[in-house]
């Protein structure tokens, strides 16, 4: 009850909760004490786009290379996405689809990191709209592989070839 009152107070009287529409998408995770992005007395978290940006898209633009997008924890999805797009350039691939997204008046969408996508998976039933299939993260495992997450069972794979075409869902921080 105290947490809900604090969330409502910090949101200017508006109560914020996972699964609620907010700032161009759906609240997918509210940062908790000890997590990057948490600020006492304020409400911050992750918002997920209401629909997939692609049912099938590769992680890379057709060239295997190390992008340096190795961040896995909360708060690393945005810098990972920026590194991927800077290294990969133009094309139709997961990070670029997210970086190019303009939705609900917001243009700061990114491909979530491994841990960010895991938080979204934990709340997938309250958010709704996810297929029970694999989704890309922005976390690179090697020159040839990146981390996806299976939304049927929660499993994250570290040896998943970047050329595989799987689902993409953008997020933004608030």
Task: Explain the layout of strands and helices.
Elements: H1 2-10, E1 21-22, E2 25-30, E3 45-48, E4 54-57, H2 77-88, H3 94-99, H4 114-122, H5 124-127, E5 134-140, E6 145-150, E7 160-161, E8 166-168, E9 171-173
Antiparallel strand pairs: 1-2, 2-3, 3-9, 4-8, 5-6, 6-7
Mean pLDDT: 93
- What topology, given as strand order, has the largest sheet? 1-2-3-9
Which sequence of SSEs, written as H and E, runs from N to C? HEEEEHHHHEEEEE
Helix percent reads 10-25%
Low-confidence stretches: 1-11
Classify the secondary structure makeup into a structural class: alpha+beta
Computed Rg: 16 Å
Distance between the termini: 23 Å
Number of strands: 9
Tell me, briefly, the overall form.
globular
Q: What fraction of residues sit in β-strands?
A: 15-25%
Number of helices: 5
Q: How can the largest sheet be summarized?
A: 4 strands, antiparallel
